[in-house]
Amino acid sequence: MNFKKLALVAASLVALSACASTHPELALSEQPMLEQQTVSLDELASLPEPARRLSVAVYRFDDLTGQNKPNENFSEYSRAVTQGGATILVQALEKAGNRKWFTTVERASLPSVLQERQIIRATREEYGGRNQPALPPMTFAGIILDGGIIGYDSNTFTGGLGARFLGIGGDVKYRRDTVTVYLRAIAVQTGEILKSVSTTKTIYSVGAQGGAFRYVGFKELLEIETGFTTNEPPTLAVRQAIEKAVYSLVVEGLVDGYWSLKDQSLAQPLIDRHWKQKDGVFGVTSVKATLEDYRNAQNDRNGTRIEPPPSDEPQVRPSPEGQIQPEVQPGLPPAPPAPVYVLPDGRSPIPGAPSAKTAPVQ
Fold first, then answer.
1. pLDDT tens string 129-173
2. Neighbouring C-alpha atoms within 13 Å toward the C-beta of 13
3. Cα–Cα distance between 166 and 144 in angstroms, integer?
4. What is the phi-psi region of residue 115: left when phi exceeds 0, alpha when psi lies from -120 to 50, beta otherwise?
5. Lowest model confidence (mean pLDDT) among 60-69, 160-169, 182-191, 318-327
6. CB–CB of 342/328 below 8 Å?
């Protein structure tokens, strides 16, 4: 029996050593993947076609948090979020409406572009290209998009759960971080800030551990440990926040009339959906009800929210005598005077109103 065990262990060691001897760094290697599809990216790509494309420029979109990676064991000098926010923003603009919303001009590498154009001119002059047509003018932008990653809050929510019985058990721990992005659109001709939006994205980290430590027989001790940890990539979270910011900027620009859709009938459903998402009631069915239903009803399991009915009480305004009188609509007879209320000691609670002794009987 012992010989069989030894043979099995030896075979396992030989197999492991063979794998390690040939490219051990590729033992757990995976193939590269294309861009990960997210809900925010699908939402951005599904925007309806605009009436005309917008020419925009992105000079910078920096990490303004100043935060390093959170680490409870030692000082960490790596940044908590990506430093390539401008690159992510340019890609999000390219994806908007299936490449129909924005014409993005290069500004981050503008010195390199100008240098390359200068090389073309110098080469033409040096090698007889003076009779060739001039270089076309560079595209200028009507809107500058600016902003940055302005917040990274770590450990905004932490917790865990564990249990153990007779030496067998496990535990789960989790942590939530939050990243915040601001984006604003600036009109080049006037310098006016047209719109400013902000979005937040949560980042979850979860760790699970389990194990057993108990005697299974006389002088036989069983000890097993296992576990895993998963961390949501902060770069992916920043990308989703920027994509959502671009989407919000487009929709709120539709609200204010800065740009429009080719099919304007699609604007109102898009705006309604955006406001419901912003108010936190997206996917909630609203129904009309009486005032009594509104006061007594609670949200049911289907997510139905009862809206209050329009008020049927007349609007009131203070009269010159200090009395509260109903608002008189044009063309209607004046309302009767309101009754005079008095306190137990005979005084009126309304300043300047007559007391009970002098007040007329209603």
1. 667 788 888 888 889 999 888 888 887 778 888 888 887 888 888
2. 6
3. 65
4. alpha
5. 318-327
6. no
| Amino acid, res. 102 | F
Rounded (10°) angle between helices 85-95 and 234-256:
50
Domains parsed from the chain with CATH numbers: 37-131+138-283 (3.40.50.10610)
Which two tokens mark 289? 């009800």
Band the pLDDT of 121: cuts 50, 70, 90: confident
Which has the minimum average pLDDT: 187-191, 312-316, 335-339? 312-316
- At CB < 8 A and 24+ separation, what contacts does 3-12 make? none
Confidence band for 57, pLDDT divided at 50, 70 and 90: very high
Per-residue model confidence (pLDDT) at position 235: 87
Determine the Cα–Cα distance for residues 351 and 353; give it in Å rounded to an integer: 6
Distance CA 252, CA 214 (A): 62
pLDDT score of 310 more than 60 = no
Alpha carbons within 13 A on the beta-carbon side of 143: 23
Residue with the two structure tokens 């920027």: 242
> What is the pLDDT at residue 14?
57
Q: How far apart are CA 258 and CA 238, in angstroms?
A: 27
Residues β-bridged to residue 181:
149, 199
Name residue 178's amino acid.
Answer: T
Phi and psi torsions of 191, nearest 5°:
75, 5
Using CA atoms, how far apart are residues 78 and 96, in angstroms rounded to an integer?
31
pLDDT at residue number 93: 92
How many Cβ atoms are within 10 Å of 177's Cβ, its own excluded?
A: 23
Q: DSSP secondary structure string, 160-191? A: EEEEEETTEEEEEEEEEEEEEEEEEEEETTT-
H or E element in which residue 210 lies: strand 193-217
DSSP 141: -
Q: What is the DSSP string of 233-258?
A: -HHHHHHHHHHHHHHHHHHHHHHHTS
Report how far apart the first and last C-alpha atoms of the chain are (Å, whole number). Answer: 109
pLDDT at position 320: 43
